[in-house]
Automatic annotation (TrEMBL):
Residues 354-413 are annotated as: Disordered. Keywords: ATP-binding, Kinase, Membrane, Nucleotide-binding, Phosphoprotein, Transferase, Transmembrane, Transmembrane helix, Two-component regulatory system. GO terms for molecular function: kinase activity. Residues 204-269 form the Signal transduction histidine kinase subgroup 3 dimerisation and phosphoacceptor domain. This is histidine kinase. The chain crosses the membrane at residues 37-57, 63-82, 87-104, 110-130, 137-153, 159-179.
Length: 413
């Protein structure tokens, strides 16, 4: 499996994770829609119960006509809290159940202290409390409801109601534990899915690291070995050629160290390892000297206070210059290259210009980097954007090429 294939496989893994995120978002939207319909159903049910309680109140209790809508509301309207605050709704309904028998006489022939609608609302709130509230609240509500029925229901019917109330509470608790166990199982399955996805990503990263090691690090190591051993293997090596080989070996070793650092990040399991210091503006002179040793006719100028530039912005500037100088050496060998870095009060401006390289006949400019292909210019643009900056790369009228970037000294959080 090649590096490109591994990268494509990683993209597929990321796509699957994004799909999972969209799926969770759709699930939340569906839950919100269901909650709205539940609220509508509760309001409609309350209105239906109220339309029953008001006309039938005169059949159960001797209540003056002006107070009938209020007493009926005390019996029914606590049901509106069945979803939001069931314990508060039960408390209001229980207080109303104690007030009504004390304040109003029952109609002869009606034995119960409350309307049937009031009893249904009280039991529904009791069941909801058992489904949703803490166990200490459930215990208090159950016990208080049993005592309420014992105190107000005549004769021996209180024992029957106590058994019925206990059965309702037990059934609600059973449903609650069943739902909680299913939710816990679903949560464990979700955690397992996330762990499997994380393991898949780590496996892909390890595979990419292995391929990079086999393809890039191996060849870079050979370049270092050949550059270091060439003066001893080849006869009559001059001092200039020996210095050139040493420069090639130093650049290859630096590139190999950076590749190894990247491989370490790919092979990590998400924890933060100890990193070597990243290059910044303090190492620009080393970068310029290495480019000159590689044969680049370079003129560089750095202005302003480089010490106060943040590490992230300094790293971005360093990488942009590194890639620009490499492109100039590769696409326009022998051309003059000028670099200007200006550290202003708020921003760091970088400009890299190179003239047009000529072919062997000296009569036409060499081909400049293609803006639409490759990853060099795109990578520099991403570097600039990562710290809140901008990068422009375009051919010059004289046939050369220019890269300019403007980055904030301290990127915003």
């Amino acid at each position: 499996m090649t590096t490109v294939g591994a990268a494509e496989s990683s993209v597929e893994t990321v796509k699957s994770l994004v799909h999972e995120g969209v799926h969770h978002g759709v699930t939340l939207s569906v839950r919100y829609g269901r909650g709205r319909w539940w609220n509508i159903a509760i309001v409609v049910t309350t209105l239906i119960l109220y339309s029953i309680a008001w006309p039938t109140l005169q059949l159960t209790h001797d209540v003056p006509a002006p107070l009938m809508p209020i007493i009926s509301g005390l019996a029914v309207f606590p049901f509106l809290l069945v979803r939001a605050q069931p314990a508060l709704g039960w408390a209001i309904s229980a207080v109303a159940a104690m007030i009504v028998p004390w304040a109003f006489d029952r109609i002869p022939g009606y034995d119960y202290p409350w309307q049937v609608v009031h009893i249904l609302v009280l039991l529904a709130l009791l069941a909801t409390v058992c489904l949703r509230e803490e166990m200490r609240i459930v215990l208090v509500v159950w016990l208080a409801t049993v005592l309420l029925f014992f105190a107000y229901v005549p004769g021996n019917d209180g024992w029957g109601w106590a058994i019925g109330i206990t059965a309702i509470a037990a059934f609600a608790l059973l449903v609650r534990w069943l739902v909680l166990s299913r939710r816990q199982l679903a949560r464990e399955e979700e955690i397992s899915e996330l762990e499997r996805a994380r393991r898949a990503v780590l496996e892909e990263k390890a595979r990419i690291a292995r391929d990079l090691h086999d393809i890039v690090a191996h060849h870079m190591s050979l370049v270092v070995v050949q550059a270091q051993s060439a003066p001893y293997r080849l006869p009559d090596v001059s001092d200039e050629v020996r210095a050139e080989f040493e420069s090639i070996g130093a650049l290859a070793r630096e590139a190999l160290n950076e590749v190894r650092g990247m491989l370490g990040v790919l092979r990590s399991d998400g924890t933060l390892p100890e990193h070597a210091p990243q290059p910044g503006l303090g190492r620009l002179d080393e970068l310029f000297d290495a480019s000159r040793r590689a044969g680049v006719d370079l003129t560089a100028r750095v202005e302003g206070d480089t010490a106060s530039v943040s590490d992230s912005a300094g790293l971005a500037v360093y990488r942009i210059l590194q890639e620009s100088l490499a492109n100039a050496a590769r696409h326009a060998p022998g051309s003059e290259v000028s670099v200007q870095v200006v550290c202003g009060p708020d921003r760091v401006d970088v400009t890299v210009r190179n003239g047009a390289a000529e072919d062997d006949d000296g009569d036409r400019p060499a081909v400049q980097p293609d803006l639409g292909g490759g990853n060099g210019i795109r990578g520099m643009a991403d570097r600039a954007a990562s710290v809140g900056g901008r990068l422009y790369a375009h051919p010059r009228p004289d046939g050369g090429f220019e890269v300019s970037a403007s980055l904030p000294r301290v990127p915003a959080a």
